[in-house]
Amino acid sequence: xxxxxxxxxxxxxxxxxGPFGAAGVRPGFMFATGIENSAPTIAGGRIRRDQLxxxxxxxxxxxxxxxxxxxxxxxxxxxxxxxxxxxxxxRYDWSFAEEAFAxxxxxxxVPIVDLCHFGVPDWxxxxxxxxxxxxxxxxxxxxxxxxxxxxLYTPVNEMFITAVxxxxxxxxxxxxxxxxxxxxxxxxxxxxxxxxxxxxLEVRPDALFVQSESTEHFHPECPAALRHADFRNGERFLTxxxxxxxxxxxxMYEFLLDNGMTRDEYRFFxxxxxxxxxxxxxxxxxxxxxxxTGTGSSRWAGEVFGYGPVTRLYHDRYRLPIMHxxxxxxxxxxxxxxxxxxxxxxxxxxxxRRDHVPVLGFTWxxxxxxxxxxxxxxxxxxxxxxxxxxxxxxxxxxxGRAYAKLIRDWxxxxxxxxxxxxxxxxxxx
Length: 429
Description:
43% of the residues lie in helices and 16% in strands. The protein has helices at 4-11, 51-54, 57-71, 82-85, 95-107, 132-146, 159-167, 179-203, 226-235, 238-244, 250-258, 263-270, 307-318, 337-354, 398-417, 421-426, and strands at residues 30-34, 41-42, 47-48, 75-78, 86-88, 91-92, 110-116, 152-156, 208-214, 217-220, 278-283, 289-292, 298-300, 322-326, 359-365, 370-371, 384-385. It is globular, with a radius of gyration of 20 Å.
C-alpha cells in the first residue's frame, strides 16, 4: 500500500526553519505554494504567455526557491516549461530543469511536477493535434527517467480549463469556439494525461498524481436556465470522469459522440484503472461559481456555496483523497482581502477534514504576483496582479505573512493527527 506522506518524508531531509519560524517537511499535511508557469499562446499563436519569464523566475529562481523555504512550505507545485524542454520528437533540453530540481532536492522542498500548463510547443501546434498525446507521454517518461527521485506529478494542469479556454471560449492556443474542437481538445488532453501517468509509472511504480483541476458549479438564474445549468454541471466533470474511468451521464455521452469521440475512444478511458495512484486536486477561486441565464449564457456569481460544499460534490463522485491545489485573491484596496480569503479557504479545508473528507494539503498559488491574469492572459497588458505571497520585487505581502503564520500554527497539530491518505487509499483496494 502506498503511503505518500511517509514515502516522501523519508526521501527528503528535514528543512530547517526559515526566518518566519515555520517548520520544514513533515508527515501529516502538505503545505504548498506554486511558481506560476502558465504558457498558452494567444493572437493566433504569435505570442506565448510564458509566466516564468513575465514574473522574472528565470533570472531569480534561486531567490524564489529560498522564499518557498522562508514561508514554510514543504511542497512546491513547479515544472519546467514544455515548450522549452520538448524540442522535437524524442529531443529534450533538460539544462534548466537539472539545475532547478537539483536545488529543490538539496533544500528539501518536495516538488509536485507540473509538466504541461496550458500550452504546447509551437512545432506541435495546439490541442487539436492528435499526435500530442503520444509525444507528451514520451516526454513524461523521459522526464521520469532523468529525475527518478521525483514521486509527485501533475501531468496536465487543469485539463478542463485548458480545453474550455482553448476550444470553447476561443481565448488561447487554437482559439476555437465550436463543440467539435472542444471535444477533440478534451479527448487529446485527457489521453495525454493518462498515457503520461502510464509512462511515469513504468519508471517510478510508486508515483502519485495530483490532478489539479478547477472545481466549478453552475447555478440557474431562472427556471428556463435549469436545463442549461444541468448540462454545464455535467460537463464540468468530463475531464476527471474520463481520466478516472468514471462513466459519464447519458447527456454527456451523447454530447461526446455527437462531437467526434468514437465508442472505441470512450472505451479506452473507461478501461483505465489508475485511481489508486491519484489524488484529486481541487482549485478554487472567486470565479468558480457561475450564474446561468435562460438563454444559456453565464457570468460569474461570486461565492455562493464556497469551496467546501462544491468540493464535497467532487469527492462524493470520485471518493478519492483531496488536495486543495490552488487559490489566491487580489490584496484589494485596503491590502487585506487576500489575507481574509486565505483564512476563509483554510476554514473550508478544516471543516472538510472534521467531516472526515480526506484533505491532504493546501496551496496558495502562486509564490509571487502574476501578470495579466485579470484578463486570463488574453491580452498582453503587463498588468501586475497582486495575488502572490510575495510581490515581483520578492517582498512579502500580507498573504505571505499570514500563510507563514498559518503553517507555523498548524504544522505540529496536523502532524500529530497523522495522514488521512493511507486509509483513503486502503478503501480503494
